[in-house]
Specification:
By secondary structure, this protein is of the alpha+beta class. The chain is built from 7 helices and 15 strands. The strands form 2 sheets. Strands 2-3-4-5-1-6-8-7 form an 8-stranded antiparallel sheet, with helices on one face. Strands 10-11-12-13-9-14-15 form a 7-stranded antiparallel sheet, covered by helices on one side. Strand 11 and strand 12 form a beta hairpin. The protein is globular. It starts with 7 loop residues before the first strand and ends with a strand.
Length: about 270
């Protein structure tokens, strides 16, 4: 069985709105336009995190981050936001697609999505075709302070005893969380997580305005683990190092954003 674990990402920064006051039905509609469903949620006074059937949605007062995987059509969610909020309320929009393992199975490609976005936004497109392969469509004001994400970590080709156990059987979420040892590295985070049947695992964790999300696809044809967070590389490094020893990936890529003279840069290593 093949499942496309690599993500699509939509980040939007708004003005003159408080997204935390929006009705829950609005977020259910947004997620459904992308082709996913809300499973559960956690929140504090500064951040709400929704766990989805395909990844995660995070809501701050003035910004949102929607991450989806599988065969979702995230561009439809971007167009829904534009129609509901109007372009005047959208200060920044960043639409990102990591290179899919099997792009021929996706309902659209980046260029098709870009054409739809350009009908509503006067943005620019950026492409990477080296160690990291992916595409961005960027609209509006860009600054390092605007973007919450400090690191995206992508582990491909998972190996080792735990990875093999995840491939061969369904493991409950409590057992997976214990193996991840998240609380040993981030003991002040509130956690929401889910173990999918027959396979797969997702986790959201929040603390004040910070977030961390983990998505695990253990299928043999597409073993993949992604970690995304607002925490700095220094804060994240011990946890990422532990995951590398646990999953022994064939490859590990880190992606983070930089802004130079209001031009967005994507740095990979």
């Amino acid at each position: 069985m093949f499942y496309e674990g690599t993500e699509k990402r939509l980040f939007i920064c708004t003005k003159d709105l408080n997204l935390l006051t929006f009705e829950q039905s609005f977020w259910h509609d947004l997620v459904s336009y992308a082709g996913a469903e809300i499973i559960s949620s956690i929140n504090n006074t500064q951040l709400t995190a929704f766990l989805l059937s395909e990844s995660s949605l995070f809501i701050w007062e003035d910004k949102l981050l929607l991450i989806t995987c599988g065969n979702t059509q995230l561009v439809k969610a971007a167009l829904f936001i534009q129609q509901q909020l109007s372009k005047e309320k959208i200060k920044t929009l960043i639409f990102q697609r990591h290179q899919a393992l099997k792009p021929q199975l996706q309902p659209t490609n980046f260029q098709q999505d870009r054409i739809l976005l350009e009908k509503q936004f006067n943005g620019q497109q950026l492409h990477w075709r080296e160690d990291y392969q992916g595409d961005l469509f960027v609209f509006g004001e860009i600054s390092t302070q605007t973007i919450s994400t400090q690191g995206i970590y992508m582990l491909h080709g998972l190996r080792g005893e735990f990875a093999e156990n995840l491939q061969s059987q369904h493991i409950d979420k409590t057992s997976i969380l214990k193996k991840l040892r998240l609380s040993e590295f981030f003991n002040d985070f509130m956690i929401d997580h889910f173990s999918f049947k027959p396979k797969g695992y997702s986790l959201n964790a929040i603390s004040q305005q910070d977030y961390l999300t983990i998505h695990l696809t253990p299928e043999k044809l597409s073993t993949y683990l992604s970690i995304e967070t607002s925490l700095s590389e220094t804060q994240s490094a011990p946890f990422i190092a532990y995951l590398v020893t646990l999953f022994l990936p064939l490859s590990l890529k880190r992606v983070h954003f930089q802004s130079d003279n209001k031009q967005l840069k994507l740095i990979t290593c």
